[in-house]
Specification:
Mean pLDDT: 75
Radius of gyration: 22 Å
Distance between the termini: 41 Å
Structural class: mainly alpha
Shape: elongated
Strand content: under 5%
Amino acid sequence: KERPVPVEEPISFEHDTVEKQWAAMRDLLSNPHLRGVLLSNLFYSLFPSYDTAFWFMQQEILLFSPDEMGFLGSIGEAGKIVALVLFYCVGNRVRIRCFYITLGTLTVITSIPPLLLTMSITYDDKEKVYLYDSLGLSPVLLVMGRNVFGELFDKLHALPPYQLAGLLCRTAASAGALAA
């Protein structure tokens, strides 16, 4: 027997709902505190991503096994947990501008390990030497540091907008607009 293929209903938007959501979004963006946090996160998202090159380096050059890759990934998840605890403990005590300036500086520093791992120097068109080798650094420590601190700072960047939205949303509609 063939199963009937479910027919999807076309999505319809009620004009009033869209208008309410748009008004709620404008209301949120009119707040200078939230606007600053969102612009900071936009700026943060413009940083180049080395994730693909970083993953390739771990798999193809450093020859990490799937077990080692899984272990390194779980270390990164531990960084997220540390970020949640850290933000819970100090999030309300630190001014948001100071928080983002410090976080931005630390984020730039955590972008160095992927660069050290993926950049190479070719001597006399023959020998390819990776930058971490020429500096005498351990690639495993660079990967572990990037996984822990990279995830920690990524999570810390994401938490203040949620906290501010919870404090600033006057209605459920504005909370829904922010979540969308």
